[in-house]
Amino acid sequence: MTILDKITTDKIKEVALRKSLIPVSQLEQSVLFERATVSLAKAVREGSGIIAEHKRRSPSKSVINNSLSVQDVASGYEQAGASGMSVLTDGKYFGGSLDDLLLARAAAQFPLLRKEFIVDEYQILEAKAYGADAILLIAATLSRKQIEQFSTFAKGLGLDVLCESHNEEELQKSIMPSVDMLGINNRNLKTFEVSLETSKELIKQIPDEFVKVSESGISSVEAIKELKPHGFQGFLIGENFMKTDNPGESAATFIKQLR
Ligand SMILES: O=P(O)(O)OC[C@@H](O)[C@@H](O)c1c[nH]c2ccccc12
Questions:
Q1: For domain 3-32+39-256, is the CATH number 3.40.50.2300?
Q2: Is the ipTM of this complex over 0.95?
Q3: This prediction's pTM
Q4: Which string of DSSP letters, residue by residue, matches the chain?
């Protein structure tokens, strides 16, 4: 059993419990449910392209940073000129929560991505109710039919969809009009190996109309300069910022060097 299988198995149980505690009707009553979303895909296309992540810990790195306020990180990233922010909401493996999303929303106006292992439409309703503008779908854990169902459902709520893959088969099943952004994860979620070559290879199969995002293991401005000519517009960066005392400032320094 890979770590991704374990996370998914736990997630299915967690979502069943959540559903029994908070009914859909209650999520739909959230004031944020009425909020007009901001397109992450558009922000990435038109801005720095940096999607900066809030990540306290991960199965591959254990603790990254446990002492920051998510509001400070959100406003720091926004002021730094990031196109958007990815907020990890998984608790068990990443130390995040839906409250992190809510707090980020309270502190910033730029687009927020709910970074979660989505296995059920219910989590997409949660994303909307807690202030997200976009969701992540992980092709490794979903069938083409599920990607279609979840992405269509998200679009109906005004949320953008980033669908991530790590190999050709995953990418091929993610290519559909209800997906806005195709992400290539440089980290293999099954083995944790990281290589930017994954991005450079797989992007060749992405049709023009999709926003193309390279994810994980990006730790230098040079890496961005290397990836851009291959056609990437978006860059998802977590640890490189989060491991510092001031992620917002680190992001600002980084983004300035891109200009
Ligand atoms: O911290 P990094 O190496 O910059 O990676 C960020 C992001 O890409 C990574 O956290 C991520 C990409 N896809 C995911 C899916 C689930 C959890 C986490 C992720």
A1: no
A2: yes
A3: 0.98
A4: --HHHHHHHHHHHHHHHHHHHS-HHHHHTSGGGGSPP--HHHHHHHS--EEEEE-SEETTTEES--S--HHHHHHHHHHHT-SEEEEE--STTT---HHHHHHHHHH--S-EEEE----SHHHHHHHHHTT-SEEEEEGGGS-HHHHHHHHHHHHHTT-EEEEEESSHHHHHHH-STT--EEEEESB-TTT--B-THHHHHHGGGS-TTSEEEEES---SHHHHHHHGGGT--EEEE-HHHHTSS-HHHHHHHHHHTT-
